Amino acid sequence: MGRIQEITDFIRDFDLIVSQETWIEKKDLQGLMWKLDERFYWAANATIRSKARGRASGGQLLGIKKNLKWGPEEELEYGVQ
Fold first, then answer.
1. What CA–CA distance (Å, rounded) separates 25 from 10?
2. Average pLDDT over all residues of the chain
């Protein structure tokens, strides 16, 4: 079992995934998005490399399960206006 499959199996029961300091560089971002679990909406920011050499820093990855109900409809349902 590959590393991506292990992570996919682990996150299956979560509704929201947030990962900081991902070290995902811009050149690798597009390829990674194709491998992520299709049950989530994914958004990502690539890392920032401040120097030509050395490790890039930052990077975020956000996943929200597609069947998660949230937003104004739920707020009205619970009486929040």
1. 23
2. 78
